[in-house]
Amino acid sequence: MTDAIKYEAVIDLAARNNSHTLLHELAVADGRAHLSVLEVGCSSGYLGASLVARGHRVTGVEPDPASAQAAARVLSEVWNGGLDDYLAAHPEARFDVLIFGDVLEHMVDPADALRNALRHLREGGSVAISLPNIAHGSVRAMLLQGRWDYAQRGIMDHTHLRFFTRGTIAQLLADCGLRLERLYEVVVEVPEVDADYAMGLSRELVTAVELLDDDDSRHAFQYVLRATPSTQSADALVSANRAIPAERPEALKRIPGAGSFKQRMQVKLFRALLKSISKRRWRGVT
C-alpha cells in the first residue's frame, strides 16, 4: 500500500489553457462573494484551496484517504468517502456551486451522480465540470493503428469507466436537466500528447487524422463548462447545448505551412484519392 497522491497540480490562475484555471473562473463567474462550493473528487484540495483563498467555503468529497487527509488541511471541510454517502449523511446540505473536475468519467453512472448532487444545489446555483475528450486526435490516431492502450494518466487513464465527446457531453447535461452556459476546450496538440503519454503514434496516421478533421476538434484535450438547471425538455436542451460554441482560452500554435495554398491542395488531393478508393471499394454494394 502507498500513501502517494495520484492527482495533484499547482494552480496558476494566469495560465488559462488549463482545466483547473477554467473551473475556478466558471465557479465564480457570477461574481458573488462567500460562495458555498461542493467539490466532488477534490484530491489534495489544490483547486478548492484557490477558492478558499478568495473567501469562499469549499467542502471536498474524496474517496482516497491520503488525498482527503491532505485536502483537510486546505479546505473548509472534507468527507473521506463517496458522493452518495456524503449526500445521504448531509440531506440538508445546500451549495451555490457544484464542481466535478475530471471526476464523472470515473463513475459507473455519471448522470445519476449529477442528478443526486443537483438536489443539493441552491436556486440560482451552477455546476462547473471538466471532462476529457475521447475524440482527441491522439486517440483517433491510436485507433487507426488498431490499438486501445490504457495509461496511468490522461485521456486513456486506466481508471476511466465512461468516455465523452462534445456531443455526449451535451446529451449528459440534457439528461440531467442542465443547460450549457459556457464551454471551453483545453487545447493540447496531438504531437504533444503523443510525447507526454508515450503513445507511440504513427506520424502517417496522425497526418491522416489531421487531414480528415473537418471541425478542427482534434485539438480538444478536455472540455470545461458551466451549466445551470433548466425546465426545458431533454430534447430542447440537447439542441441548445450543442449550439453553444466551444471557446479556446488561447490560440493554437501556428505550424509552418499550415493553411498554405500547397497544403490546401494536398488535402484536396488526399480527400479525392480517398473518395476514389472508397467508391471502388463499395462498388455494387447498396
Task: Label the overall shape.
Answer: elongated
Number of domains: 2
Per CATH, the architecture of the largest domain is 3-Layer(aba) Sandwich
CATH fold-type name of the largest domain: Rossmann fold
Multimerization state: single chain
How much helix, percentage-wise, in residues?
Answer: 25-40%
Output the radius of gyration.
21 Å
Our count of helices gives: 11
What's the β-strand tally?
A: 7
Q: Which superfamily, in CATH terms, is the homologous superfamily of the largest domain?
A: Vaccinia Virus protein VP39
pLDDT < 50 stretches: none
Largest sheet properties: 7 strands, mixed
Give the integer mean of the pLDDT values: 94
End-to-end Cα distance, whole Å, is 58 Å
Structural class call reads alpha/beta
What is the H/E string? HEHEHEHEHEHHEHHEHH
CATH class of the largest domain: Alpha Beta
Strand order of the largest sheet: 3-2-1-4-5-7-6
Q: Work out the strand percent.
A: 15-25%
